[in-house]
């Protein structure tokens, strides 16, 4: 059998592929552990700047492998936030961006994985949904926490309580899809976007990203203070001065 997780590298972009197309990339416990390890390796790799999470065979992820669950191979659900999530990386706090390349179904835990990513590049015929609603399977990979942050409380409750399908056009309208692309192109488009992010000055990009996430539960005053502290560290790093020098020498003028 082919490995359930495949890792590809192209320059500063790491693509991590869910590789069980015969199960619509549903994740069993062993696959979850391998997936978490792949993202830990990405985080530790100084030459890797952005990760793309994609699914092989035309689907992103159908969530937990319920056939495995029915056979007694049950995912661990540990309330300790330092433990891995049931589907693997969903409790990791990475310092680098992750882009989900969403094709086909991104449902149940697959939706939760997509919400764990920073950005979602979604094919126009893709479908999201809390399909586990009909089988009594709870959201335990961050879906109840991240989905309201991405699309708002009312819309999140609609999806979570009804379990209804959400197609790409609606996903884009409510903010779940970062951008919608042609069928069969999400993987390529996500890697193109990843290369764009990887080309930016990384100290500043990662600092601004960290300020967003760390400020979610802060008051406005706390968030502004956090933003200033992290921004000061970027300025002190010399990256901003280097960027200003390149600007004065003509780089980036006229939209280039």
If you had to describe this structure to a student in words, what would you say it looks like?
It is a single chain. Helix content is 43%, strand content 15%. The model has no long low-confidence stretch (mean pLDDT 94). The strands form two sheets. A six-stranded mixed beta sheet has the order 1-2-3-4-6-9, sandwiched between helices. A three-stranded mixed beta sheet has the order 5-7-8. Helix 3 packs across helix 4 and helix 8 (202-214) runs antiparallel to helix 9 (220-237). A hairpin with a 2-residue loop joins strand 1 and strand 2. The protein has 256 residues and is an alpha/beta fold. It has ten helices and nine strands.
Keywords:
three-stranded mixed beta sheet; alpha/beta; 9 strands; 10 helices; six-stranded mixed beta sheet
Shape: globular
Give a quick account of the main beta sheet: strands, pairing sense, barrel closure: 6 strands, mixed
In DSSP terms, counting alpha (H) and pi (I) runs of 4 or more, how many helices?
A: 10
Report the sheet-strand fraction.
15-25%
Low-confidence stretches: none
Rounded mean pLDDT score: 94
Short description:
With 256 residues, the protein is of the alpha/beta class. The chain has ten helices and nine strands.
Which SSEs are present, and which pair or pack?
Elements: E1 5-10, E2 13-18, H1 29-44, E3 50-55, H2 66-70, E4 98-102, E5 105-107, H3 109-116, E6 119-123, E7 127-129, H4 143-151, H5 153-162, E8 166-167, H6 168-174, E9 179-181, H7 186-198, H8 202-214, H9 220-237, H10 239-248
Parallel strand pairs: 2-3, 3-4, 4-6, 5-7, 6-9
Antiparallel strand pairs: 1-2, 7-8
């Amino acid at each position: 059998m082919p490995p359930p997780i495949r890792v590809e590298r192209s320059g500063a972009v790491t693509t991590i592929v869910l590789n069980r197309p015969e199960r619509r990339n549903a994740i069993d416990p062993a696959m979850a552990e391998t997936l978490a390890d792949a993202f830990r390796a990405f985080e530790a790799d100084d030459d890797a700047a952005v990760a793309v999470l994609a699914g092989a065979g035309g689907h992103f992820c159908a969530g937990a492998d319920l056939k495995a669950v029915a056979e007694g191979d049950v995912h661990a659900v540990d309330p300790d936030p330092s433990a891995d999530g049931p589907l693997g990386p969903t409790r990791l706090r990475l310092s680098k961006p992750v882009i989900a390349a969403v094709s086909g179904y991104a449902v149940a835990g697959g939706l939760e994985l997509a919400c764990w990513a920073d950005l979602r590049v979604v094919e126009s015929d893709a479908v999201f949904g809390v399909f586990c609603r009909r089988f009594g399977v709870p959201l335990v990979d961050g879906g109840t926490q991240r989905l309201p942050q991405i699309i708002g409380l009312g819309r999140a409750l609609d999806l979570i309580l009804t379990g209804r399908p959400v197609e790409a056009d609606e996903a884009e309208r409510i903010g779940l899809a970062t951008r919608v692309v042609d069928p069969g192109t999400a993987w390529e488009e996500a890697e193109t976007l990843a290369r764009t992010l990887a080309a930016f000055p990384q100290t500043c990009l990662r600092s601004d990203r960290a300020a967003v996430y760390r400020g979610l539960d802060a008051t406005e005053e706390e968030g502004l203070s956090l933003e200033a502290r992290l921004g000061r560290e970027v300025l002190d790093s010399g990256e901003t001065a280097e960027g200003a020098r390149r600007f004065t020498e003509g780089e980036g003028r006229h939209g280039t």
